Automatic annotation (TrEMBL):
Keyword Repressor applies: no
Gene3D superfamilies named among the record's database cross-references: Rhodopsin 7-helix transmembrane proteins
TM annotation in the entry: 12-40, 52-77, 97-119, 185-203
Protein topology in the membrane: Multi-pass membrane protein
PANTHER family xrefs: G-PROTEIN COUPLED RECEPTOR
Species this chain originates from: Cathartes aura
Keywords of this entry: Cell membrane, G-protein coupled receptor, Membrane, Receptor, Transducer, Transmembrane, Transmembrane helix
Name assigned to this protein: G-protein coupled receptors family 1 profile domain-containing protein
Domain G-protein coupled receptors family 1 profile: 32-212
Record's subcellular location: Cell membrane
A molecular-function term among this protein's GO annotations: G protein-coupled peptide receptor activity
Recorded GO CC terms: plasma membrane
Amino acid sequence: MKDLRRYLVLKYIQYLVLSSSNAISTFLGLMGSLYTIIILQSAKVSSKSTAVLILSLAKADILASVSVVSEMVVWTFDVSISSTAFTSALLQNLLTANAHVSCLLLSCVAFEAYLITFFPTESRHLRTVKNARLTSRIIWILVTAECALFQTDDLLKASSTSAPTRSPCVLLFHFSSTAAPLLRSLSYFLGILLRIVNVYIYYKIFFSMSNR
């Protein structure tokens, strides 16, 4: 449990404290996620809702590892990429998806800690493994759809000059060019809101534990 707490602190610093991830925090986060996946697969760790959320959080770093490893391969071996615009947009969108999944899952962990602290008995029927898995699945579906929209928008912007005037791609282009900026703005403000809510939750928990 101490290792999991340290991992959560690392993730909170990486995604909810720092304005943007740097090389050191990304490397530590990837190593921490790998270690967390290993220990959570152990039979010694009981299957609880918090463990399910933390495991999903650790698996989210697979997206970041794909982006980081791809960039390292291109930089180290000077690999030429056939579609540079598409690939660079995809790698960036994977990092964005990783950050959004992580922020949402960290907020779920914080909310569960709040329920455990203040409503341990009343919230027991909510804090189940089934609900945790369902919550993780919904988060992944929403962020995957967001990533697909961002990737479509980037791809259509890169090829907009050669698109036919009456092609169905034009309608898709107009939809993505309108929806993507709105979603980016919404994600930005949601990120700020989640930071505030997380600080408030742990502030309440800290002072509650101190009074006890």
